[in-house]
Design goal:
Blueprint: H1 2-9, H2 58-65, H3 70-78, H4 81-89, H5 91-102, H6 112-121, E1 126-129, E2 145-149, E3 154-158, E4 170-174, E5 179-183, E6 204-209, E7 212-218, E8 221-223, E9 226-227, E10 231-235, E11 245-250, E12 267-271, E13 281-288, E14 294-302, E15 320-321, E16 325-326, E17 342-348, E18 353-359, E19 362-363, E20 373-374, E21 378-382, E22 387-390, E23 405-409, E24 412-416, E25 441-445, H7 446-449, E26 450-453, E27 456-459, E28 466-467, E29 484-488, E30 493-497, E31 530-533, E32 542-545, E33 571-574, E34 587-593, E35 601-606, E36 613-617, E37 621-623, E38 634-635, E39 647-652, E40 671-677
Helix pairs in contact: 2-5, 3-4, 5-6
């Protein structure tokens, strides 16, 4: 800290001088030492003209604040009242802190100081719903492909199913106004066949190629039991939505076997470009084939060598000649085939190259005979050298899992939830059945786990996953399987949302199908979203459940929980209380319910920080699990521009208040759009 101060102040040597006041008590900093004044001489000097911390100009204080870490900035402010006042007012210093946390620029309307506070405390995390569109809008469907594009200003929706039919329509939503418009809808338009994307890792991503953006769609369930491996492109997305068109991606004539094998339970990972004029890539890894055999092959898709029609050409192309490159010449060891695994992209700061991280999953265990075993290993694929690197870090015994959420936050790999291997009783006829669900969070330091040497990247000899015990007063833990780990603000915040819990018995027909996919009745509602800010150490990690500002799927006009949902142990959100408004937004578990009508009182055990039992009417409760089939929200995949400031979801629109409490079939509803962010809205800056 002193070195940084000295360099900023251009002082050659610094030392503390004795306090001038008489009768001062012994200083804890040593004989005659006091942390309130700083000299440029090599020996203590009591001259009155010596420079002190109090005399530093504001420009110098801002320069120091831009070069020190956040804890040091606080200690620096504690040394001097003038510095503390300057730090409170120095927007440049807080902007530097924001840049160190997120790698970007603080939002101008809010200010860097307020943005840093909201980011680190998560006290402004909230949901916001777009107003319903008065014009045309898509009908609600589940398992559609939802993507964000144009810098997070538009949503793209394709396909899905409503239980009776498969869709092939394409829609674009302007997130500023909430207006929907159907695209590529003219009679001669070519488009993918009707399909949905359950178990298909979202179905696609948005890739950047030079100055253009294209939506890439791959695979999907075209009919019960039938999947294909087609790849389609939608764009260019820089044009108005009415001018978008679908183009099939056909492999070049000189490339054999360029189309990947049709699969499900795989991962699609966006690999962002490192240069502004470069191209994004899409990594397809693992999954199950038609025979439910686990796969390993890694395929990469990029528009680098594609002959794309540009917006100025005005020529309608029949197809795009581009295929998937195969990593068949992998050097060294490789992971075992797997599905239900987790994958994420990581830019190693020391090596200056991108890595594809993969861990856990369901597949053959090393040295074992079991084909569908839960895995506990962690691998990194070096995109530059084409080598797999096995990290020394393995989850402890008994914590191997599949269906976990994975994200990279500030050079740390965060693993949340997942489930154990199948129950032994179901081993013969339901091999993909999930086991008990985890509610834990683990962290892995990637800077220590992967080291840069003269020969390139190599795994460290010792690295380990660390259990992250989240603050109990901030988070009421929920078990997640198949959850999504979204990141905001350059990975500074991780959102764990969606997914399922094996709340029903796995032996029930409605709980799981023959492919190991859980039913919608076990899907978590959006108010069970958890925001996590990873600290320098696991014990300094902050977490909070995001129940403020309920999304469309949990609005005030929604129906009260049914008798089936009011069972012991069921989780409920408290809303709409006037006399005890401080309890609104809390989540508790049902202890018992009164017999009679659905409006009777229920005994609810609230979690921390309230930690008490209350008696509450059913009309003030919202269930945390979906009851109707087809009501599970769909989370939008981020665009090629990187992590944004909000995460968007679509869900079935609720009835407005006053239209009655009767349940409405999800297939008859329209699509509603909601987003979650951790910063306050600019118009609320004063109150925040």
């Amino acid at each position: 800290f002193l070195r940084v101060v000295n360099e900023a102040a251009s002082l050659k040597v610094a030392c503390w001088r004795p306090p001038e006041r008489r009768g001062a008590s012994a200083s804890p900093h040593g004989p005659g030492m006091h942390p309130h004044t700083l000299l440029s001489d090599s020996a203590p000097d009591s001259s009155s003209d010596a420079p002190t911390l109090e005399s530093l100009p504001p420009e110098l204080i801002a320069a120091i604040g831009a070069h020190v870490k956040l804890p040091w900035l606080g200690r620096f402010a504690c040394c001097c009242a003038a510095v503390a006042g300057a730090v409170r007012q120095a927007e440049e210093a807080w902007a530097a802190v924001w840049a160190s946390l997120t790698g970007g620029v603080a939002p101008a309307p809010l200010g860097a100081r307020a943005a840093v506070r909201s980011l680190l405390t998560l006290d402004q995390a909230h949901w916001r719903s777009l107003p319903g569109s008065s014009g045309e809008a898509p009908d609600w469907r589940q398992h559609g492909c939802v993507l964000t594009c144009s810098g997070g200003t538009r949503l793209i929706l394709f396909g899905g199913r409503d239980g009776r039919r498969f869709f092939c329509d394409t829609w674009a939503c302007d997130l500023a106004s909430g207006a929907w418009v159907r695209v590529a809808a003219h009679s001669d338009a070519r488009c993918p066949s009707p399909r949905c994307f359950n178990s298909d890792s979202g179905g696609g991503r948005v890739l950047r190629s030079g100055e253009e953006e294209w939506a890439v769609l791959h695979g999907g369930l075209c009919a019960p039991g039938y999947r294909d491996s087609q790849t389609w492109l939608l764009g260019p997305l820089s044009l108005p939505p009415k001018e978008w068109s679908w183009l099939p991606a056909s492999p070049p004539d000189h490339v054999e076997g360029a189309a990947p094998v049709a699969r499900f339970h795989h991962t699609l990972t966006l690999l962002p470009r490192r240069e502004a004029a470069g191209d994004d890539s899409l990594a397809l890894l693992g999954g199950h084939d038609r025979t439910i055999s686990p796969l390993l092959d890694l395929r990469l898709f990029s528009l680098r060598h594609a002959s794309l029609p540009r917006k100025a050409s005005g020529v309608a192309a029949a197809s795009v000649s581009v295929g998937w490159s195969s990593s068949t010449h992998v050097l060294g060891p490789a992971p075992s085939p797997r599905a239900f695994h987790s994958a994420a992209h990581y830019d190693h700061p020391a090596a200056g190259r991108g890595l594809l991280l993969a861990c856990c999953g369901l597949g053959p265990a090393a040295g074992g005979e079991e084909v569908f075993a839960a895995l506990d290993d962690t691998w990194a694929f070096d995109l530059s050298s084409g080598r797999w690197l096995e990290l020394a870090a393995r989850l402890p015994h008994g914590f191997a899992r599949s269906r976990a959420a994975l994200a990279v936050s500030r050079d740390r790999l965060l693993l949340a939830g997942g489930c154990r291997a199948r129950a032994a009783a179901l081993a013969t006829y339901l091999p993909l059945t999930p086991g008990p669900v985890f509610d834990d969070v683990w962290l892995l330091d990637l800077r220590r786990g992967l080291l840069q040497s003269e020969l390139g990247l190599r795994p460290a000899a010792v690295s380990a996953w660390e259990r992250c015990v989240l603050p109990h007063e901030r988070a009421h833990r929920t078990p997640h399987a198949n959850a999504t780990a979204g990141t905001l603000h350059g990975g500074a915040v991780v959102l764990v949302l969606g997914g399922h819990d094996t709340f029903l018995s796995p032996l029930a027909d409605e709980a799981v199908d023959s492919f190991g996919d859980l039913a919608d009745e076990q899907a978590w509602a959006l108010h069970e979203t958890e925001a996590i800010v990873v600290g320098e150490r696991p014990e300094r990690t902050e977490a909070r459940l995001c129940t403020r500002g309920a999304p469309h799927s949990c609005g005030e006009g929604g129906a009260s929980p049914s008798r089936r949902q009011l069972v012991g142990g069921a989780r409920m959100l408290v809303q709409g209380l006037e006399t005890q408004a401080h309890i609104n937004g809390s989540i508790g578990t049902v202890v018992s319910r009164a017999s009679g009508s659905a409006d009777g009182r229920v005994d609810l055990a609230l979690g921390p920080p309230h930690s008490k039992s209350i008696s509450i009417r059913c009309q003030h409760l919202r269930p945390s699990r979906s009851e109707a089939r087809g009501g599970m929200p769909t989370i939008a995949a981020p665009g090629g521009g990187g992590d944004g400031s909000a995460l968007w979801v679509i869900s079935p629109a609720e009835r407005a208040a006053g239209e009655g409490r009767a349940a409405e079939a999800p297939s008859n509803r329209r699509v509603a759009v909601s987003c979650i962010s951790v910063l306050p809205q600019p118009e609320h800056e004063g109150s925040a």
